[in-house]
Amino acid sequence: MSYEIQKQLPSAKQVLADLPLDPTLAALVQQDQQEVQDILAGRDDRLLMIVGPCSAWKSEDVIEYARQLQPVKDEIKDKIKIVFRCYIQKPRTTIGWLGPLNQTDPYAEPNLEEGIYYCRKMMIELLKLGFPLADEALFTHNDSYFVDLLSWIAIGARSCEDQEHRIFASMIPHPVGIKNSTSGHIGVGVNSIIAAQYSHTFAFHGNQIKTSGNPYAHLILRGGAGKPNCDEANMLKSARMLEEKGVQNPAIIVDASHENSVRNGAKDPLIQPEVVNNVLACCAQNPELKKAVKGFMVESFLQDGKQNLKDFTCSADLAPGKSITDGCLGIEKTSEFLRSLYTDL
Question: Helix or strand or coil: residue 304?
């Protein structure tokens, strides 16, 4: 075999015993799951905004960002439901830092045991600040360490065609957003939603199980192949495809980042508010789109932009609260944007 066992990881049962979720917080997680489902199904007419860092690191910066976002969240909650983007695992096109779950210090050796405790502790602190949490299901076998903390889960563009991820989405109670593929192919995302909404029988943790299917699996448009797909034509195409395929609770979330924020051939995280406003302008003119588009994803952190790990030699040299993966919109611009959005709704 071409691997070596480096260490035995603690069981999820042990980790949850060491860092338990308070019953009051657990009830809030369930309530937030239900509220997100209600938005997706059209029973709640608020806008869903999944906002936060591209990657949730460093924990102290992530928590400080949440503290600064908290008053805005409370001010706008009757029209906009904010779910905190707390991504602890990062997909890579080739190689690179896989997120704090693998390396709590990107310049140190991977230490998954340390990462498990680091991430769970950070996520519980965010829950205490009143934020529902979102994460991407990258390595689904890590789900048991964190799934009790989440109110929304994403299947990324690199995973949307993977059978294991589709079945995972069909077995969990969480609303699951599934992105179109990195090529920008919308049909791939729609096919994944269909698969996620159906029941499957497969092997999981040593057992044969039958999933129930997830009626709240929905589509995320994130652009692809260097081009956006949040224009009116592509959104209408997506909405009609969901309807024609008989998808339950057909809903679209627009990712304002990734290729949807490409300008002059390069991604510009500062135009994410413009992307959101352009989509909402389309929805205001088209009842079909207004019915289908339920919210947005925005990458945001304490500082604008990003920094490159290769430009530094240790984590102490990095600017605090500035992304080390995709570029983000700073907290000041994010707060201004969200308050303006609230006023305009």
Answer: coil
